[in-house]
From TrEMBL:
Coiled-coil regions listed in the entry: 22-52
Protein name: DUF948 domain-containing protein
Keywords per UniProt: Coiled coil
Region (Disordered): 118-162
Record has Lyase as a keyword: no
UniProt key word Coiled coil: yes
Signal sequence range: none
UniProt xrefs under Pfam families: DUF948
Amino acid sequence: MLLEIAVLIIALSVAVLTAAFVQTLRQARTSLERASEALREVQDAVRIWKDDVEKLVSSLSGLTERAGRQLDAVDPLMSSFRNVGETLREITAAAHEVSAGWASLLKTKADKAAARMEAKAAPGERSGIAGGGASRSDPASAMPGSPGLGTDRHALRNRQAAPPPGWLDWLDVAVQTVRLLRR
């Protein structure tokens, strides 16, 4: 009988252990099912995010390509601006040289004209022209149109009737060149 009681106790303990083991296995299975469901949800979310990221990357790639094309389109424009700037710098330098040359030429002609006027006036001063003549000390009588020396009126008429100096033609050419460059 003791043996039968021992076998019965062993059988009951195996049955209790088996029932506990079955419950543990069921709980493990439900936990695994929950984990599997969570894993499926994560995979779906990752798949959706992956699609969104791929769309974003392709959109950024397209945007980068468009920006590159626009920059390539702007490069010739900037090159043109650079060329226009260099051309304007050269034109300015040329205009500066031309104006310096003209100023020098005009100064030389003015000096020569002044020397000729002094040479013409010098014999009149030496001979002592009497009455109403222009003298170097009286600037009002040397002004054009003043009742002074008769030769001043003739010189004024000759200056007014003379054709315009040649530099005016060059000035017209320069103005026309600038107008053409602006177009």
